[in-house]
Structure formats: structure tokens, C-alpha cells
Amino acid sequence: NAGVTQTPKFRVLKTGQSMTLLCAQDMNHEYMYWYRQDPGMGLRLIHYSVGEGTTAKGEVPDGYNVSRLKKQNFLLGLESAAPSQTSVYFCASSYSTRGSGANVLTFGAGSRLTVL
Amino acid sequence: KQEVTQIPAALSVPEGENLVLNCSFTDSAIYNLQWFRQDPGKGLTSLLLIQSSQREQTSGRLNASLDKSSGRSTLYIAASQPGDSATYLCAVRSTGGFKTIFGAGTRLFVKA
Questions:
Q1: Which chain A residues are within 8 Å of B36, Cβ to Cβ?
Q2: For residue range A65-75, what is the model confidence (pLDDT) as tens digits?
Q3: Any idea of the CA torsion for B6, B9, B10, B15, to the nearest 10 degrees?
Q4: In chain A, what residues touch B41 (CB-CB under 8 Å)?
Q5: pLDDT at position A95, please?
Q6: How far is CA A17 from CA A27, A82, A85, in A?
Q7: Using CA atoms, how far apart are residues A65 and B39, in angstroms rounded to an integer?
Q8: I need a surface site. Which of A17, A91, B57, B77 has the fewest CB within 10 A?
Q9: What mean pLDDT do residues B8-13 have?
Q10: Which of A40, A90, A100 is closest, CB to CB, to B104?
């Protein structure tokens, strides 16, 4: 049972380059999320999805785009990478949260991105 | 806007000591609160989830409490071990939305 898988695990980009991070989950979760983690700032929500074909903005969406074409996959794209996007990116998934308190977030192992 | 604060930012204790990690949040309208553990260079592992209707949850040597009215949660670790060394994060899901807001974490070091 793989849970949440993120690829790639590491990537170095030059300013202005584009790339896509892939998140895949095999738990049939409805909800998926992308977070970034920076030193001393905890995790901040970039974008999230409440189901196949839907996406929504989180706290820090600027400079990122996402797509959820299949229920099990959630893609995070950087169209023109900037040094400020150097961070560790985490994908997470959960069951439907509407009206329910018992929705445990399951996280991937993270993707470390460096933008030079 | 929900804000989550964790104090202290770092903590060093000798093995065997009981300890308490603190989490505070500004908006008491929450669905649940989760405590996570993060090892260096790794992802987050869920330790305990407390629903808004609950006061506490226990798992092994861990006990988490929730006081919504005061906007506080504590994670109690009994008889700490070197293997407990990690960063512990508190996360709050507010009502009326799908966002889970995280604290910056407490880095714990348990000395053998």
C-alpha cells in the first residue's frame, strides 16, 4: 500500500524554467492538497482539490497552477520558477471533510525544489 | 483568519522525562485538531486527531487534549525516549472551509 507518492524527490531549476510535481494516491481519497514548507513558517497551503476536475486556491497560490484530471493524481506546476519558490513541497490527501471531523491527512514524503 | 502558534520552538530534555508541547489557535470554530510528527527530511506522520466534540485522545505514551474555548491544545509525551526526537506540528481545520492551518512546530531533542 503506497499511500501518497510524490515525484520527483529532488529537483534543481534555473530561474524562469518550468516544471511539474506529481502527486499520486491509492487510497481513493476525495481531497488532495499541495503545501510548501519553509524554515520557521510551518506548512502553507498552495492549492487544493475537493474532487476530480476541481481545484481551488489556498493561502499562497501565486506562481503555481494545479490540475486534477484523475481522482488519484494532483499535479503542481511552476510556469516560471523564481528563487522564492525554493522550498520543500508536500502533497496530502484525505477523505471528504464536509461535515466530518474525523479526516486524517496523509502526507507524501516531500519534494525538495531549489531554484537558482 | 485562523492562526496557529506552537511554543516552545525547540525543546531539549533528558530521556525518561515527561513533557508537554503547546499549541494555540485564534479561532475556536474548528472541525478538528491534529498532531503530526516530522523526522528530518521526511514527510509528516499523523499522531492523534481530536474532533471538535472531543476533549482528548490517547495513543500509547501520547495524550492530546483540546480546549476550544481557550483555543489551546497540548500534546503530552510520557517517559520520553531518544526515538521521540523529531519536530511536532499542530494543525487545525476550521469550520466553513477545507483548509488545515499548521503551526511552525516544536523541535524536540531527547538526550540519552
A1: 105, 107
A2: 999 999 999 99
A3: -10
A4: 110
A5: 79
A6: 33, 8, 12
A7: 29
A8: A17
A9: 94
A10: A40
